[in-house]
Structures are given as C-alpha cells and as structure tokens.
Amino acid sequence: MFDNLSANVISALLPEMTYFVPFFGEIDFSKSVLAAIVFVGLTFLFWFLRRVVLHNAKKLTNKTSGNFDDVVVEMIQSIRAWVYTLVALYASLQFFTLSTGVEKLMDVAFYFVVVWQAIEVATGFLSYFTTKFIEKDEDGDGKLDSNSATISDLVTLIARIAFWLLGGLFILSNLGINVTSLVAGLGIGGIAIAFALQGVLSDLFASFSIYFDKPFRIGDFIVIGTDSGTVEKIGIKTTRIRTLQGEELVVSNAELTSVRVQNFKKMQERRVVAKFGITYETPQDLVHQVPDIVNHIFEALERGRLNRVHFTSFGDSALIFEVVYFIESADYTEYLNIQQAFNFELMSRFADLGIGFAYPTQTIYTKTIV
C-alpha cells in the first residue's frame, strides 16, 4: 500500500479548497482534486508509455539482429491496459480514509493483480530462455526434438508453480499476515508429499537426466535387457518404446536411468564375426587358398570391409576358419543383405573349387584281426 504520510505531504502543497455545498455543508475538495490529478497523470503516463515509448522501441528492435529486445518489448506490451488503470485508481484512492474492510479488499485486489501480471511477464521471459536453450533441433533435420519440448513445458510449469507460491507469500506478507509459520508448514508438508510421491518424483528427475545426458532420443533403436525397439515418446514419467513385434513397451524413466541401455542409432558400422568349417578331406593347397578367396570376395563387396581371416582350429569334424569384417552401415537390413551376399559368394567359390563345407560326421575305421 502506498504511504499515507506521503499522500498527506502532497495534499498539504495544494491551496485550501473548502467550499460550502448545500445539504452537505462545508467540504474539503483538496483530496478529491489531488486524487483526480494523480489518476489522470498516471493514466496519461501509462498511455504515453504504451503508445509512444513502446511504439518507438518496437521500431528500434526491428533493426537489431537479436530477439531478446523484441521479447522485452512484447512482455511490456502484454501488460493489460486495465492493470494500468487499476494501479492509477489504487494510487488515487490513497488520499482518502476508507473503512478497514474496504481497504483490505482493495489491497487484496491490487496485490493479486500486480503479482499475477508480474508472474505472466516472468513466465514469458522464462519461456523465451527455455525455447532458446532447451528447445533445439538436436539432429539437424529441421524438426524440434519432442523430448526437448516436453522438458521445456515441464520447466515452465514448475517455475510457474514456484512463482505463484512466492507471489502468494508476498501478498500475505503485505497484508500483515505472519508467513513464517506458513513457510515452516509448507516445508514439512513438502517433505511429506515428497515421501508419498517419491516414485513419481524419481521418474520426474529421471526425465531431466535423460534429456540432459541424452543416452537416447526419439527415433533411436535401443535394447534394454531382453527388450528392444524404437523410442516413440519420452514423457515426464515413462518412455514409450515400439518393439519389433509391434506392441508398445512402457518403461519408467527411473528404470531407464538405472539399467544398461544399448543405443544402435549411434552405431556407424557393424563388426561381424563369422566362422565356417571345411572338410578334413580338402587338399592342403586349397586350404591355403581359403583366406585369399575370402579377401577377393570382400574386394568386390560394396560397403563391406574385411578385417581378418584365419584358419583358427581343428574341429571334431572340420577345419575351422574365422572371418572378421565390418558393415559400413548402421541399418540392420543392409547388414543382413551384405552378410547374405558374402555367404552366397563363398558357397559359389567353394563349389567351383570343389571345397566342401563340413558338417558333423564320424569316420569309423575297422581292423580285421586274424
């Protein structure tokens, strides 16, 4: 509330304006005149601010490269015209002595409107910063990351709740209410609520962890234990995954931050280890040719890169070769296509040379004793 002492000092500067009014007697009009001057003066000042100052400021912001100044002007313009009128009216009424009930009602209305408008402006600035620093095109595909939009909305919601709590305490404090015990009660109540909602809160903070750490994003193919699928949505409490079988898998965010997650979207190439065996009856010169055969196959195989091929061991019924190669693609279908092309070509080359693939066999030698 404006200081009544200041109002009395200002009213003392005016000349005596006491006049006789029929049926009412002598009335001092100095306070009424002063209240009218304050109301008209503040109304004109606010009008000048909105119509002239902000109008010219907006022209200047259009010439700058940044957009923060645009946001500042926009936030000031967002203040409702009737809020200015209410402030001017509240200031002008301070020159009158009102009943306690009316004065309390005016204070409540004034402080509530001012706090509400301040919160709207603060939320507008917060939305600007969250949009600038949180809502980003992480993949560079021209589309906003849905997870960042969710986190941005969540930050704005939490901040708005905090603003209203602080604003409510401010209103109560200015109305003469002792808020110390109320703050203590809120603290105890907050602890109780935190215990009751610890599961929800753990998922909530896990969603922040997923956003800032970015172990995966929407569209990534991930594996969690025995489950795998494509991430479709990262929410405040759960993450939705579309599995290869087609069903939707719902996993809590807290669980996702406490288990090992394999992200295949970040894979740039695949390493493949393959083994095959040829029969023991294969001539030794053909056995020596096997590494060269495999090498020639990969020289003609697109997006396949041979790492090594070795004759590694003598199996029970086969000579075992191990081939290690890379598929220069993260796509699973392309990986299978290249693997299939290698297998077909290897079978064809072995068939041309008469090299047989081994399979489990047993050779029985008999000896006749005379």
What's the short story on this structure?
The chain has eleven helices and ten strands. The protein is an alpha+beta fold and 370 residues long. The chain has three domains: 4-176, no CATH class; 200-263, SH3 type barrels (Roll), CATH 2.30.30; 270-353, Alpha-Beta Plaits.
**Count of distinct structural domains:** 3
Could you give the order of strands across the largest sheet? 6-5-4-3-7
Cα radius of gyration in angstroms: 39 Å
Distance between the termini: 127 Å
Secondary structure tally: strands: 10
Q: What helical percentage do the residues reach?
A: 40-55%
Shape: elongated
Summarize the SSE layout with pairings.
Blueprint: H1 4-12, E1 18-21, E2 25-28, H2 30-61, H3 68-77, H4 81-92, H5 100-133, H6 146-174, H7 180-196, H8 198-213, E3 221-224, E4 227-234, E5 238-243, E6 248-252, H9 253-256, E7 261-263, E8 270-278, H10 284-299, E9 304-314, E10 319-327, H11 332-353
Antiparallel strand pairs: 1-2, 3-4, 3-7, 4-5, 5-6, 8-10, 9-10
Helix pairs in contact: 2-3, 2-4, 3-5, 4-5, 5-6, 10-11
